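Field notebook, page 302. I keep forgetting to write these up properly, so this time I am using the form the group agreed on. The chain and the ligand, S-adenosylmethionine, are recorded exactly as supplied. Prediction of the bound pose follows.
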Amino acid sequence: MSQKHPYRSLHVPNDAPFKLKPSPGKGWGAFATRRIEQGAMILKEKPLFVLRKPHQEITEADIRAAFDRLGPSEKRQFLLLRDNGSSPFSNMERLCAENSFTLSTNSPGHGLFLLHSRFNHSCVPNSKVPTTGDEVIVSYATRDIDADEEITFCYNTDFECRTRHERHQALRFTCDCKACLTGTPFQQVSDMRRRLLRGLQYLTVGVDLDGRRQDSTLIIDSKLKKAAQDSSIPLSSRLFYYLLTMCLLAEEGLLDDFMVERYKPAIETAVALFRTESNVVIVRHVMAQKSWLGKCGMATRL
Ligand SMILES: C[S@@+](CC[C@H](N)C(=O)[O-])C[C@H]1O[C@@H](n2cnc3c(N)ncnc32)[C@H](O)[C@@H]1O
């Protein structure tokens, strides 16, 4: 049956390192056709169309109007889309929600991407679309991907700080990646690591994931919570929190090059703020350790 499947007619570039095929339990997915090295570009894609409205305001009529403006070949490609690879979509809004990316351009925008939307989700993915600030989106391998391995990315940007239960509530489907498969030692530790990551982010940024101060039990110690909110966490603790964050992300399989780039400025700023000669020597010694675990361990000892 899958030989006649509409996705067989989706235009995948000849040089793309993947093909589309059924992914058991997940509809269809994208699978590597050759080994893809960490850091390599996987796909650069233009949207079929962009809707310049906040998500909640997009209507069936907006999508129909965008469809009507497409050329004949683009219309044919659009009409190939299936709800998780099976039946036609019951309405255009759902079709759009399942196949679009929020663009982080100046004005609100959602782009409909035919191929990137074929990639399934994983909470421990092997690829990333690092920015959607441009209308053209690009995915990269965040680790080496073997031929025939499924290519996945994480659908949400704050999942490294969310437990399995929270992630599944947001996704509205049950992911079975190694951070989600229950009863495994990795999964149990994964939830603890992600909860810790959320706490560490609160301690370093002073707000929770939604950008607000929180009054629940994320940080129980009221003095510590106040210090985080007032940005008065001592410099040595702040640096340690960053190093611990990097260790936890590495253990969780999420410390890709983009993540390192994200934390690098904050870590470098913290390092540069140590002034007394003895502290400078200690920090230099800590940062000279090769791995994040090594840096973290040395920081604890010193
Ligand atoms: C953007 S589509 C991905 C491509 C889709 N599988 C297809 O065949 O067209 C997103 C949908 O794929 C399914 N999906 C994606 N990742 C999944 C996962 N890790 N586990 C189960 N289903 C998944 C869900 O139904 C989700 O709503």
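OBSERVATIONS:
- The chain has a mean pLDDT of 94.
- Residues 25-29, 84-85, 98, 117-118, 120-122, 173, 175-176 surround S-adenosylmethionine (CB under 6 Å).
FOLLOW-UP: compare against the apo run.
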